[in-house]
Amino acid sequence: MSAPVHKSSLDDNNKKGEFVRSPSVFRNFITKDGSSGFPAEPNRYHLYISLACPWAHRTYIYRKMKGLEDVIGLSIVHHFMDSQGWTFEQTEGTIPDTVNHCKLMREIYLLVNPQYDGRVTVPVLWDKQKKAIVNNESSEIIRMFNSEFNDLAKSPGLDLYPPHLRAEIDKWNDLIYPNINNGVYRCGFATTQEAYDEAFKKLFATLDEVEAHLSKSRFLCGDEITEADIRLFTTLIRFDPVYVGHFKCNLHRIEDYPSLSGYVRELYQHPDIKPTVDFHHIKAHYYGSHDRINPTRIVPLGPDLSYLDAPNTRAAQFAKVKA
After folding, report:
1. Which of 36, 61, 101, 195 pairs as cysteine with 31 (C-beta 3.0–4.6 A)?
2. CB-count exposure of residue 303 (10 Å: 0-12, 13-18, 19+)
3. Is the pLDDT of residue 186 over 50?
């Protein structure tokens, strides 16, 4: 019997050539009180991620910022995705599957459902006790990490989705997800000129809108980092090294925007965020795995990203504005 073939995101296009992202299928929720059937407990859950994937990157940042490293285990897949999908082949930056001892990410999905034939994605939050996938939707995993593990977290007071800002955070998420987070994929995976043109115009119109806002606000929702910033950051940090060239998002670089570049720099230099960024995995994955876009699989040596390590001036800039 032949091994199952991985379903690529490049297969998720409609008749117009537009990329249409498939919804996540495992949507259970961990709760502090256990009312969901998945109680927040130490060493019960394990997180599977890719350092290349912007969706998985969100969860990795949350695990770090909330101080959940000793509470929730971690495995990191290899950056190269072939016809079998994500693998646990070892290279610099990877962490093997110490829970289920699988060689392929697909095998973890098959443990839950031997007939599973859908897309195999990361992140995946695994319940070691029930031997089940709790959730594979990043936007829901970060909400769990934010609030449900506070009795176990090293930073329980950090709330990236505070009640008084939730409407504003949701507003930004609703704008940024389709046009920027998913917008870069809609450009890169488009198979018709019309689909690409539409996605491209919406992407850069939204970047212009965010740029204008960030010229007046340190972060999206004021003076503190929130969920909306983390969700935007994981796309923006990949923009110049990957999306500009590989996905043809080449009207401007993030470095070209005065406010967006400073904003990304400040987030990148955060002590809990910078260690989660791995440009080797990011570039090697996209350029090496998407052979329909880059048949030679050559990974570019550039670009120069030294602007990210330049002095951060936004804190002082907005302190002066408030004064």
Report:
1. 36
2. middle
3. yes
d(CA 246, CA 189): 10
Residue with tokens 């720099």: 265
Interstrand relation of 132-135 and 124-127 (parallel, antiparallel or unpaired): antiparallel
Known catalytic residues? 53, 185
* Element of type H or E holding 216: none
Burial (Cβ within 10 Å: 0-12, 13-18, ≥19) of residue 21 = middle
pTM metric for this prediction: 0.95
Query: What spatial distance separates the first Cα and last Cα of the chain, rounded to whole Å?
Result: 70
- Nearest residue to 59 (alpha-carbon basis) of 30, 81, 36: 30
**What separation in angstroms does the CA of 270 have from each of 52, 228, 323?**
19, 16, 24
The one-letter code for the residue type at 294 is N
Is pLDDT at 102 greater than 60 in this prediction?
yes
CA distances from 17 to 82, 192, 198 (A): 23, 5, 11
Alpha-carbon distances of 156 from 22, 29, 30, 58, 167, rounded to whole Å: 33, 19, 16, 18, 22
* Confidence tier at 7 by pLDDT (50, 70, 90): low
Is residue 129's pLDDT more than 80?
A: yes
